[in-house]
Amino acid sequence: MMADIAGEREKHERLLAEKLRAFGAEHAETLTAMLELADYLWVEGRLIAARKLEEQVVAGRRRRLGEKHFDTLKAIGKLAVTMAAQGDLAEARLLQEQVLNGMRQLHGDTGLETLRAINNLAGTVSAQGDFEAARELLETVVATSCREFGEQHADSLMAMGNLAAILWRQGDRGEAYALQQHVVETLRRVRGDRDPATLAGAQVLGVMERDVGF
Q: Which residues, including other chains, have CB under 8 Å from residue 185's CB and lie 6 or more apart?
C-alpha cells in the first residue's frame, strides 16, 4: 500500500516539475499540481513538506484569484487541516472560520462546501478540548446534511461518525455507540462490507464494544 502511495507521489512530483517548467510557479495548473502532491505527502506523514506546498498554493491563489474565491478557500481549508494536525490549533481555527464565512457567502448555510467547512472546524474545536462546541457544530452538520442530501450521503455518514466520536468522549457512550452502529450498518448496505469506509467504521465500533462490553 505504501509502495503504491510512494509511486503515486513520485508521479506527481514529476508532474509538478513539468508544470513548473512549462508554466511557472503561479499558473493555475501548477498550483493544482502542488495541492495534489501535498495530498500524497500528507498520506506519507510528511506534513512539513505538505504544508510548504499548501502555503505556496494559498499565497499564489490569493494573488491570482483573491481571498474569497472558491479555489482560494479550498486551499486555505487544506492548509488549516494540516496546521491542525501539526498542533497549530489556534491558527488553524482562525483559518477555518475564515473558510466557513467564505463558503457561506458562496453557497449559503446549507451548501455542501459550507457543511464540510463546519465539519473541519468542529475537528479543530474538539482538538482544543471544547467538546460541547464541537458537538453543537456537528449536530448542525448532521441535521442539515441528512435533510438536504439524505442519510446515505457520504458527508452525512462522515459527520455522524465524527459526532459519535464526540459523544463518546463526552461520556454519552450509549448514544455514541448507537450512532456509530447506524453509520456502519448504512455503509454496509450502501457500499458493501469491504469498502474502506465500512471497514474503518466497523473498527471504531469494535473499539467501542470492547471498551464498554457490548
A: none
